[in-house]
């Protein structure tokens, strides 16, 4: 069945799969000390124009958020996130497992507002009792957000300015970063992102890899002893090559952005199709996720022909449905959807 | 360079790699809910003759030990392990990160003795002050051990009897389980193992997979809500298929044991070669790891021709060196080694 | 200077102090195994009409909330509290330190509404994705609340009904429990409270003791091995007698309620005085804490004559101020306040 | 019954009790911000000749060890202790609860040897695999040890030299510090101790207080934000005065050392008595704890007349018994013991 269910429905993009096959019988040293990991990291440094960056390759998104936030935060500190942020609601308490509270500000179509972040920090320090409260020790945003929306460069710069003023690091969750960078509405490049935060990650799992997220500390600003920290979280692969080979492939010949662009192109056509059919929008995003409101019967009928994602209940008679494109989405998929609508 | 460095030097065995390629463009649901994961679990249940088993697929060994022990132990409990056990010394504090102490008994060529386990438990409960101490809440052994040695069925049964008598679960770390099962000196089958412990895992990373360990609770005795527990540890892959496809391949047509047998056959020839050359043994094991003592100069000379693993300092002039075979080791590799020795 | 700053400004009430002096040279066994601890627990069981209750004596409120919630919650569970609940905002992350998220519902003058608790639970289980979220594993309320307000018996019963229906324990923080029980507006007795929740604590620190909180599991329903759990939190006093002697004194001859009644009587006179002087109320409570709005200059002027508690900023020109009475408040204190107003 | 059971059998020494009574009706600000806490800290700074010291007052020993070690250690670090150290065996996993492993070296009558500490550190860094192991991040010793023995100044200096060379802090558990300082065999003064470690605590609970331990960071070297750290551990008393008043009394007019000296004087007479009676020594210590070997029948007979502490089983027919003196022990107690022996 044709799928618009999510962006992790398929295996690896062809370039990544080929690289895994090609390197399979190379004997390599373990734990990420191999030359493919080294090369992947170097390619990422180049793509970020961040020659001094510390780069670590981890396996999945929740793991990455947990490891990075544990590295950034002192025990008495929490992380500030939008209420809809992944760390705030969809990680089964992985951040609290590490001992840290997630402090929330309202999400505006998934985005944090710089002034609300600053207000939270100001109110904290203005409270005479703040030593009995959880310190705001880092800020977390997703780019794109969980709703597919994008921060403009000005919006991101405003958030980072608040962070720098209050000396807390800004961490950008880029689980779907490729789909931001490839969007025509995105005015932030990868090198600019590397200058507008303290640490971010480049998502592989949802952008063409079998698994893998590349954490970047742009100025070589990783905390001390990252390897034991990663190992302690059960996040150090014996065959680190699995991640190195994939990211090397993704960052060779512009593969990462190119395959993301396919998702964005297909999302553009999807949006046009939905407009044409008079779909009722819940949220039209500039990236690869689109959210529409369907009458329940219509949703059930459509669900028999196309894989979709139930997102939320809208009202008694309607639901919010997500349609996602990916590097693997084709015009043929859209044609099937058009016929089914 | 020919390698005897370890058993995770190469990518996946051919069957696993082919399965990943063949299934790559199947659209699948995420988080391990896909049919390949279901099929892999069913094949594992069959291989274990444990039709009610709960099976979970995780990514690596330290992660698996951490997740399983966190599931088994109450907060006031620790795990008893041999002093040489992986959880006791080589996981960067992953067990303590979860809040649990590792209580140790002496390792005898890597093995725990049932009577020393019982003595530790007896002394604990005999101590009037034991409510101020860490309760022995589970026992952990590795099979094969970190030194390649094997428990006999009687030895394992004796340990399990102690555990059952004191009502603590026994957890068997099978990171290299295939190399035990394939050893002619092993008198324990997989179905027997499933009856002689409360939970064990079948190692994939070191036995033919790119990554992956299959946790088996043989009688369906997994604690409640394993998915949130796994997610909370950052151990739930979005593309759970990566693990399902690999274990499905490993447990189809006896691949798992067959590729392990190659390692054992090659280890047998390696042992013969080492005997023939009059090597000084540190520990000759019945599985895929062999430990010899080399004069330092000899070690350096050999290390230029063959990848080996430094294991330990033996004395001022000698070192202990590990040579490991794997599913990928060939007669040609042995010929090169023979020439270099 | 006369103080209405809080209810923990003075040492112990005379009965408690006398008991400490009288028992000082009795040689006693440590760690709470002494006869005064035993007698205190028995007196508390009698006062609660809960002959099977498990009772534990701890030192302070945050410690008690942390220990009890760690006992109640599985690692993948969080606690539901009002947004203004002490565990949600004023314990420096003590609950998260134990690995648990605090899930919040709105506070209505400090109180949780049963229907909003149920809605949170229902929405959680209705979400297909809930295994990626933090399970609501217990409910926490304060009685009186942090704002001095009281649940009626019906309101408490409604919350407990929701908890029982969904099989999550209800924990009542009684840091100021005496001031509830002594209030004429309270329609819940101690034996009734013991039937309307799964665990609660009787606050000593704020009701006449130097330190100490008595945790009550009314039906003997404490989780296994409480002593190691308490010890593991650093909460087991070597001289457990310090807590036993104090609670024995508080629960002998009705001291606990009698001294609390003084606070309530004085609070009644305080309210009358404030009404008489036309004070602007922020929140008039039925217990020992009253909240008024003062113009900033007036607040500064008053603060030079009387110890008050700044509570919150109200608007640019006004602040919210708390006045608290206690077992130690006298008519003379009120006269000084009357003169200063 | 006369007691030699331990040094926390009685309430407070007279000076401390009087101070609690005298200050009882002083209205004070909470959470340790009161003038008695300030005065206590200042007196401690003076006694330590450490004018810049950071001083914190906590409630008990295990809590103090937990809070201090959590402050000192990075998440990937453990603490090195003697195998008999309190943190290694008698805190119910409180250190592991904070996520840290306790690494052990042999205990020699309770003492750590500097060379064995150094060997552990050297072996760790010499191991190529050490990033997969727990880093030695601090050293912990008890003074006196759990067996009543003392480090000489040279021994302590040697340990501290190892710590400084390897840049790990040395933490001295002084739960019974008074009994060391008062011992004629002790060649370390309080100001010298303050120069020979990075942090230590002055035990109150076992030396005359109802509860309380004073943590001293001699050069003002406490980590950032100690108050939230303490609060997060549930270790911040609302009535911080309880600790301040007691330590103020203990450090006024030399009370702390004077009352400790009584324990040492009585221990001297106890040792003489035991020698006179031909007691079989297990360990004769220079402080307030003495350990003798008794035939089981003799132990039972004596236990009916005198409170003693069972320490350990010696052999089938004998047990090790501890006799402890304290500030409260009198010649009359010794006379009763002499009659009973």
CATH architecture of the largest domain in chain A: 3-Layer(aba) Sandwich
Q: What do the pLDDT scores of chain A average to?
A: 97
Number of helices of chain A: 14
CATH homologous superfamily label of the largest domain in chain A: Type I PLP-dependent aspartate aminotransferase-like (Major domain)
Number of DSSP-assigned strands of chain A = 11
Poorly predicted runs of chain A: none
Amino-to-carboxy terminus distance of chain A: 15 Å
**What quaternary form is this?**
homotetramer
What is the global morphology of chain A?
globular
Output the CATH topology of the largest domain in chain A: Aspartate Aminotransferase, domain 2
Report the biggest beta sheet of chain A as strand number plus sense, adding barrel if it closes.
Answer: 7 strands, mixed
Question: H/E order of the elements of chain A?
Answer: HHEHEHHEHEHEHHEEHHHEEHEEH
**Largest inter-chain interface?**
A-B, 53 and 54 residues
> Helical amount among residues of chain A, as a percent range?
40-55%
Spatial strand arrangement across the major sheet of chain A: 1-7-6-5-4-2-3
In angstroms, what is the radius of gyration of chain A? 20 Å
């Amino acid at each position: 069945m044709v799928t618009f269910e999510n962006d992790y429905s398929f295996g690896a993009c062809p370039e990544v799969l080929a690289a895994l096959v090609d390197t399979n019988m190379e004997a390599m040293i373990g734990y990420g000390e191999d030359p493919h990991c080294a090369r992947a990291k170097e390619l990422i440094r180049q793509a970020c124009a961040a020659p001094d960056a510390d780069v670590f390759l981890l396996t999945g998104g929740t793991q990455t958020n947990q490891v990075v936030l544990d590295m950034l935060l002192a025990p008495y500190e929490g992380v500030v996130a939008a209420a809809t942020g992944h760390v705030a609601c969809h990680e089964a308490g992985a951040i609290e497992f590490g001992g840290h509270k997630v402090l929330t500000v309202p999400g505006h179509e998934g985005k944090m507002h710089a002034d609300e972040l600053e207000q939270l920090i100001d109110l904290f320090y203005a409270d005479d009792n703040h030593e009995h409260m959880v310190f705001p020790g880092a800020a977390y945003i997703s780019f794109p957000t969980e709703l597919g929306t994008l921060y403009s460069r000005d919006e991101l710069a405003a958030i980072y300015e608040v962070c720098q003023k209050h000396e807390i690091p800004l961490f950008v969750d880029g689980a779907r970063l490729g789909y931001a960078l490839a969007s025509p509405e995105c005015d932030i490049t990868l090198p600019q992102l590397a200058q507008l935060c303290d640490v971010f990650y480049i998502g592989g799992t949802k952008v063409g890899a079998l698994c893998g997220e590349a954490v970047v500390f742009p100025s070589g600003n990783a905390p001390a002893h990252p390897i034991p920290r990663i190992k302690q979280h059960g996040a150090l692969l014996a065959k680190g090559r699995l991640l190195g080979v994939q990211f090397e492939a993704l960052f060779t010949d512009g593969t990462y952005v190119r395959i993301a662009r396919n998702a964005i192109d297909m999302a553009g056509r999807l949006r046009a199709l939905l407009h044409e059919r008079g779909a009722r929008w819940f949220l039209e995003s500039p990236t690869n996720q689109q959210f529409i409101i369907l009458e329940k019967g219509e949703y059930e009928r459509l669900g028999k022909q196309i894989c979709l994602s139930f997102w939320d209940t809208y009202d008694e008679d309607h639901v919010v449905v997500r349609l996602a494109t990916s590097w693997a989405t084709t015009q043929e998929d859209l044609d099937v959807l058009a016929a089914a609508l």
